[in-house]
Amino acid sequence: MSDYERQYTRVDTVRNILDTMILGIEDPLRQRDAYVHLYGVGQACAMIALKRGHDGNYAELACIAGMLHDFVKYEVAQDVPAHAKKGALRVWPLLQATGEFTEEELTMICTGIANHSDKMRTDDEFSEIIKDGDAMQHWLRNPAEAFFSEKSRNVALREEFGMRER
Ligand SMILES: [Fe+2]
To answer: How far is the CA of 62 from the centre of ligand 1 (A)?
Structure first.
């Protein structure tokens, strides 16, 4: 067995959906932001889910929700009102059409997307992973910068991951 084994996963399916949207963004800087932020949040969500003791399948769903959490914000415009709720409605049929997700999984993913903007509120465990992944990516893109938003979440994440305080 080689060290490198590539297996098709649902993340690949979602990558196709996401890349189709991102390739439609005309402004190259905004397109770069979309790649960095959406893939970055997907990876942060996967890491947080695994750190919290979940298995790979659960972490895959967290990764997918993270990848898609700002779908409408990038597809339409930065300032779409209620982009989280609209995003959940937009993403549901896209994922459902793939035939690769159960109703329960679609509910988890879309609930996480719908709740992700409410950072001051505590929701279900899955939604909290999406919020924390979003906050973590904002902070990791420039770790030397003082937290510019979501400070309390980032302080809690540092502690959870055993990182020193600033
Ligand atoms: Fe975001």
So the answer is: 14
CATH code at position 43: 1.10.3210.10
Determine the distance separating the centroid of ligand 1 and the alpha carbon of 134, expressed in angstroms.
5
What total of structural domains would you count in the chain? 1
Q: How far apart are CA 154 and CA 123, in angstroms?
A: 17
Give residue 151's domain range: 10-160
CA of 153 to the centre of ligand 1 (A): 14
| Averaged confidence pLDDT in the chain | 93
Give 117-143 as a 3 state SS string: CCCCCCCCHHHHHHHHHHHHHHHHCCC
Query: What mean pLDDT comes out for the span 98-119?
Result: 97
Give 124-149 pLDDT, tens digit per residue.
999 999 999 999 999 898 888 766 67
The structure's pTM equals 0.94
Q: How many A from CA of 76 to the centre of ligand 1?
A: 14
**Do the domain assignments include residue 136?**
yes
Asked if 154 contacts 147 with a C-beta cutoff of 8 angstroms, the reply is yes
Residue 3 belongs to some domain of the structure: no
